[in-house]
């Protein structure tokens, strides 16, 4: 059966930086506590939203140590161990275990690309090396491989994987994964990583969501989860409509794309809301400014957040 610790809203945390690009621990703690006070059910640290691939090993440890200290056992903390190959991921996993996280999250290896046999072996090696719940992070846009349902279910039934964080953008495949998992007795915790289709994921039986937008607006996602648990699907849909409108903060910036537009918009919005002190980005990404920030302010205002 799925692990009850990893259900509900588990935001992938934004990593605030100072203007000098050091970790802004004060802003980070304020952001984490804001989400915890809103009732989120866990924290996913060092995912894509957390700038994991922009961070040195020392920065990764600093981010994790701060998050575990702030969480203080109130909710489970999942740590991304994302890297190019297995040995590096195992090193990160051991560091995360020593810091005291509750679970780890790994992608397929990237750069030296392999097939499904190598991807499967990667997850098995990590699980053998570290006695922590292991989630597979399905994000083919970044690692150039889609994790198959057969692979995920095989590793779930065998206890290698505890769950899946799905950021594939393939909602048809996601629905089939939910069906296969249910038929097998729910060995996996299945979480959607897409902010604007959480309602459909819950209707299909997903165990929770990992919405980056919850860094900006955590309470609506918690309310949506509560409504889903109560079977109030009308309210689930209403909240999803509101959140979909707010998610337009990532669409209004001009002249930027990818991480600069997505996480850049989250940071700009959080700064405008007084959650973090700066919307500084990691090199070589430039922080949003000028008309792009004004456009984000416009979306926030239209959602009643300013």
From TrEMBL:
GO cellular component, one term: cytosol
Binding site for pyruvate: 49, 210
Alphabetized InterPro entries for the sequence: Aldolase_TIM, DapA-like, Schiff_base-form_aldolases_AS
GO biological process: N-acetylneuraminate catabolic process
Domain of life according to the entry: Bacteria
Protein name: Dihydrodipicolinate synthase
Family: Belongs to the DapA family.
Alphabetic keyword roster: Lyase, Schiff base
Stored PROSITE patterns: DHDPS_2 (PS00666)
Active site: 137, 165
Any one GO molecular function term: N-acetylneuraminate lyase activity
């Amino acid at each position: 059966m799925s692990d009850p610790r990893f259900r509900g809203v588990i935001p992938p945390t934004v990593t605030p930086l100072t203007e000098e690009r050091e970790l802004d621990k004060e802003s980070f703690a304020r952001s984490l506590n804001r989400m915890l006070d809103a009732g989120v059910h866990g924290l996913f640290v060092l995912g894509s939203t957390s700038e994991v691939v922009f961070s040195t090993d020392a920065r990764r440890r600093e981010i994790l140590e701060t998050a575990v200290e702030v969480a203080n056992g109130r909710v489970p903390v999942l740590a991304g161990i994302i890297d190019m190959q297995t040995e590096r991921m195992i090193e990160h996993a051991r560091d995360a275990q020593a810091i005291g996280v509750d679970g780890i999250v790994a992608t397929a290896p990237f750069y030296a690309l392999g097939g499904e046999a190598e991807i499967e072996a990667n997850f098995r090696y990590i699980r053998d090396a570290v006695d922590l719940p292991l989630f597979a992070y399905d994000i083919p846009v970044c690692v150039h491989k889609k994790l198959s349902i057969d692979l995920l279910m095989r590793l779930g039934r065998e206890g290698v994987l505890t769950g899946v964080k799905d950021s594939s953008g393939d909602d048809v495949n996601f629905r089939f994964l939910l069906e296969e998992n249910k038929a097998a007795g729910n060995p996996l915790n299945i979480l959607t990583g897409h902010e604007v289709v959480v309602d459909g994921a819950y209707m299909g039986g997903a165990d929770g969501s990992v919405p980056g937008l919850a860094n900006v607006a955590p309470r609506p996602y918690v309310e949506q989860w509560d409504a889903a648990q109560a079977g109030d699907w009308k309210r689930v849909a209403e909240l999803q409509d509101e959140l979909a409108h707010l998610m337009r903060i990532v669409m209004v910036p001009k002249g930027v794309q990818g991480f600069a537009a997505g996480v850049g918009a989250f940071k700009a919005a959080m700064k405008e809301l007084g959650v973090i002190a700066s919307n500084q980005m990691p090199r070589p990404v430039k922080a949003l400014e000028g008309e792009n920030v004004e456009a984000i302010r416009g979306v926030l205002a239209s959602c009643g957040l300013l």
